[in-house]
Design goal:
Elements: E1 13-24, E2 29-39, H1 44-47, E3 56-66, E4 71-78, E5 85-95, E6 103-113, H2 119-150, H3 157-160
Antiparallel strand pairs: 1-2, 2-3, 3-4, 4-5, 5-6
């Protein structure tokens, strides 16, 4: 398996460790579960709160690539601070129905902060802004990768999952 981290494209990710990988040749589906070790980007004034002063933020990502439908599904959630916050994201990349040169991207996410009191709203606002910027960054990275790997102006999701 290729490891694309650390990468200049995603500067906050230190490393990714694959925890589990399975291939279902009958259904044509590849599964992978990974843990990403990311820089703690919580601002310094919030990191004065002991529980927020972690050296790294751990995120779990699960991915399913369906080769037959040319579709990639991802879910991710935080492992760090799971007792206080739940950040969840679900994404899907699939080939457009009427134009095979286009990719349809769907993404849903949620943030739930609890057990921190009034400071929870400040943390929630920061998390929301950070995730919004992450979505923008993700679009740019995906666009760059598609351009790099397409060569002939078309792309195939299986190129993205190698």
């Amino acid at each position: 398996m290729k490891n694309y981290y650390p990468s200049a494209k995603e500067k906050f990710v230190r490393k990714i460790e694959v925890q589990d990988a399975k291939e279902d040749h009958v259904r044509g589906v590849s599964y992978k579960r990974s843990v990403a070790y990311c820089d703690n980007v919580i601002p310094g004034f919030l990191r004065t709160i002991r529980v927020l002063n972690e050296s790294a933020i751990l995120l779990e990502e699960e991915s399913w690539f369906d080769k037959r439908q040319n579709q990639l599904s991802l879910t991710s959630r935080n492992l760090t601070w799971a007792n206080y916050a739940r950040l969840y994201e679900k994404s899907k990349f699939r080939q457009h129905d009427s134009n095979p040169n286009w990719t349809v991207f769907e993404q849903h996410g949620s943030i739930d902060i609890h057990g921190i009191g009034p400071l929870g709203r400040v943390i929630e606002m920061f998390a929301q802004r950070f995730l919004h910027l992450g979505v923008k960054r993700g679009f740019m990275i995906m666009e760059d990768l598609l351009k790099e790997r397409s060569g002939n102006g078309t792309h195939n999701m299986s190129n993205m999952c190698s």
